[in-house]
Design brief:
The chain has 282 residues and is an all-alpha fold. It has 13 helices and no strands.
């Protein structure tokens, strides 16, 4: 009895295993040729109440890459980049425009400053000429008294506007010999200045005035360096107002220059020239 049961069980196992192997082989072949065996089995198992909890769901979504989404992102980024480039170009243009505006404004400012300086220079020149005209219309002694009280540079600029004969008359009428000597030397140096801007010229004259602290010692040299006719005019005027100073001045002038001055004086006043020559020999 027991042997019969073992025989039945053995036969069952043999045929069962053979059947299982056969089924698996068939399923493998079907899957190999493209038949969705596993998917079919999943679909069938999901319908069975117990197996649907064991077999995974065949409808689980697969992760896919959306090409359209990436293309849209690329286009958006490219559009944003182009927009930023346009903004940068606009900023560059605006910066260039601002720089040009600054250059124009700077040039306009320089032109205005030049125009103002020229206007001021002309006004100062007109004022100096007007003042000089006033001094030319009054007696030399009165003009000398007024000019001697003015600052050196202002007096020098004013007298420089007058003709040489009137300059000599005014300087010879000054009782302040030191001031007269200063102005005389200033006139010589002003004549050598090429500056046309009145404000700059005034500054240069002011600097010259500061250099002449002891003009009396160099007055003879300054007068000797002038044209003989101008020097003679100064000496003649000084002889009429302060002969002692005039004689001291002539004694300090070199012989050659002194002779030229005396010759010029003799042309208009031979007696005065003889008097000066006689005093020089004493």
């Amino acid at each position: 009895m027991a042997e019969k049961r073992r025989g039945i069980l053995g036969g069952f196992l043999f045929w069962g295993i053979s059947l299982l192997i056969t089924v698996l082989l068939i399923l493998f072949l079907l899957n190999f040729v493209g038949f969705p065996v596993w998917k079919t089995f999943q679909d069938w198992g999901n319908k069975v109440p117990v197996l649907n909890l064991i077999i995974p769901n065949s409808t689980e979504p697969e992760k896919t890459v959306d090409v359209n989404d990436w293309e849209e992102k690329y286009l958006t980024t490219e559009s944003l980049l182009n927009q930023k480039e346009q903004e940068l170009d606009e900023l560059k243009k605006q910066l260039s425009s601002n720089q040009n505006d600054i250059k124009v404004l700077k040039k306009n400012n320089e032109d205005l400053q030049k125009e103002l300086a020229n206007k001021q220079t002309k006004e100062v020149q007109d004022q100096v000429k007007h003042v000089a005209g006033i001094y030319a219309s009054i007696p030399a002694s009165k003009a000398a008294a007024m000019l001697v009280s003015m600052p050196l540079e202002e007096a020098s600029l004013t007298i420089a506007q007058l003709d040489q004969e009137l300059q000599g008359s005014i300087l010879g009428s000054m009782k302040d010999v030191k001031k007269a000597a200063q102005i005389t030397m200033m006139l010589k140096e002003i004549a050598g200045l090429d500056e046309t801007n009145q404000s700059v010229l005034s500054e240069q004259v002011h600097e010259l005035a500061l250099k002449h602290e002891n003009p009396t010692e160099t007055l003879a040299e300054t007068v000797a360096g002038m044209p003989p006719a101008q020097s003679a005019s100064i000496i003649q005027t000084m002889m009429a107002t302060n002969s002692q100073v005039a004689m001291n001045l002539m004694k300090n002038i070199k012989t050659t220059s002194r002779s030229q001055i005396l010759t010029e004086i003799a042309k208009s006043d031979n007696k005065l020239a003889a008097t000066i020559a006689a005093n020089l020999n004493n």
